[in-house]
Amino acid sequence: MVESYLPILVFIVLAVGLGVLLPVLGFILGPRRPDDEKLSPYECGFEAFEDSRMKFDVRYYLVAILFIIFDLEIAFLFPWAIVLDKVGLFGFGAMALFVGILLVGFLYEWKKGALEWE
Amino acid sequence: MAEILELVWILAKIVVLLVPLLIAVAYMTYAERKVIGWIQLRRGPNRVGAYGLLQPFADALKLMLKEIVLPLNANRGLFVIAPMLSIMPALAAWAVLPVGQGLVIADVNAGLLYVLAMASLGVYGVIVAGWASNSKYALLGALRAGAQVVSYEIAMGFALVGVLMASGSLNISEIVEAQAGPIWNWFWLPLLPLFIVYWISGVAETNRLPFDVAEGESEIVAGFHVEYSGMAFAVFFLAEYANMILISGLAAIMFLGGWYSPFHGLPVLGPIFDLVPGMIWFCLKVAFFLFCYIWFRGTFPRYRYDQIMRLGWKVLIPVTVVWLVVESVFILTGFGPWF
């Protein structure tokens, strides 16, 4: 059973290898003439002012948190979806309860304005 | 000895898949410029080789000979590994996708789970690149891209749960086999809302127009890869196009019956169309979706960021949740011709 995953491992190694090989080729074949202007961060012709790791909107953080909750829910739904015709009404009820609680939370954040971007 | 032979065999299979895939990626860039050119009544690239057919190789060669700039303020290590992080999942996900009946590198039972995991990893390349560049535009682009990709991944995940319910398996070959039959047997029809949601999320997931605010040439110049040049930039470019092909391939497998011909199982037409190998049908379906990508880019104006987030959270997620409930009621009651 585990052996059937060996090709995947080989594929991942090969894909990483390709991702490493191409930039390495670029480093070898390309010229290398650094100067201060070229290496400064791009800023539409200005000298870069203030730190570029600036404060950012808290909503990006909020979206990330919400994503974790929902993605976890999807991970729970996967096995349930496959055996739905076997677990029957009881399984459906259990999942409906679970998703229902999550939907209450979803509606709450919706009403609270967590999904508003302007 | 047997182990080495097996390893060589696996490597051979991977190379046979990977080389056409990379050529497809190269020619996708050519096709895009050509089709957009025609949409805008131009000719597109037509100087390098007949009809410009060697253009992708000329581009690759040019990028290879350009300097890779390492900005002074950048976190060097992260800056260099970010392109690798973004291309690895786009290619590695193909390990479990069947391109024809039995033509799959790893026929594993948790296939779809693996694909979803790989699709989720793609966002790391973008975020790491934006952060490591230490440039304002790059950070802005990475934040936007990150939030957008994770938002649409939820809708996409829900849509795939619908496919799992209809097929009853995580094994991708079995998902295709569950759709055996003519075109109206494929999942796009019974799962039409999920198919549409999947495709919209797929376009958003790859940061393509009309959802390309992450790059937004006219507002934040190029977003997360503004500081990249030469081959490092080319790898991001490859990753974006490889992701498009991956999303299209998944769409063909999940909703358009993978390698089956549109008349499979019909009395007269079925055997005739089955003469065409399944791989050809699969490629045609993938090409159809890829054309849609280019078509969208040529015709739709860019969405605003708040509109994108509203569409993802307030339209697509509720639609999928409702349809999942409807579908499970269908399955439990045995109602409807498809379940």
Total number of helices of chain A: 4
Q: What does the main sheet of chain B amount to?
A: none
**End-to-end C-alpha gap of chain A:** 51 Å
Q: Counting H and I runs of at least 4 residues, what is the number of helices of chain B?
A: 12
Oligomer: heterodimer
Indicate the mean pLDDT of chain B.
86
Report the strand count of chain A. 0
Number of domains of chain B: 2
Classify the secondary structure makeup of chain A into a structural class. Answer: mainly alpha
Helix content, binned percent of chain A? 55-70%
Query: Tally of extended strands of chain B?
Result: 0
* Percent of sequence in beta strands of chain A: under 5%
Subcellular location (chain B): Membrane
Transmembrane segments (chain B): 6-27, 77-99, 111-132, 152-171, 183-200, 220-238, 245-263, 275-296, 316-338
GO biological process, one term (chain B): aerobic respiration
Pfam families (chain B): NADHdh (PF00146)
Give a concise summary.
Chain B: It is an enzyme of class 1 (oxidoreductase). Chain B: Pfam families: NADHdh. The complex is a heterodimer of chains A (118) and B (339). Chain A has 118 residues and is mainly alpha-helical.
How do the strands and helices of this protein lay out in sequence?
The complex is a heterodimer of chains A (118) and B (339).
Chain A: H1 6-29, H2 36-39, H3 58-82, H4 84-112
Chain B: H1 2-39, H2 55-64, H3 76-92, H4 111-133, H5 136-167, H6 172-177, H7 192-205, H8 217-220, H9 230-255, H10 269-274, H11 278-299, H12 305-333
Helix pairs in contact in B: 1-9, 1-11, 2-9, 3-4, 3-9, 4-5, 5-7, 5-12, 7-9, 7-12, 9-11
Question: Features of this protein?
Answer:
heterodimer; A: 118 residues; mainly alpha; Methane Monooxygenase Hydroxylase, Chain G, domain 1; 69% helix; 0% strand; B: 339 residues; 2 domains
Walk me through this protein's architecture.
The complex is a heterodimer of chains A (118) and B (339). Chain A is mainly alpha-helical and 118 residues long. Chain A has 4 helices and no strands. Chain A has one domain (3-112): Up-down Bundle (Methane Monooxygenase Hydroxylase, Chain G, domain 1). Chain A has helices at residues 6-29, 36-39, 58-82, 84-112. With 339 residues, chain B is mostly helical. Chain B is built from 12 helices and no strands. In chain B, helix 1 (2-39) runs parallel beside helix 11 (278-299) and helix 3 packs antiparallel against helix 4 (111-133). Chain A: The chain crosses the membrane at residues 6-29, 60-82, 88-108.
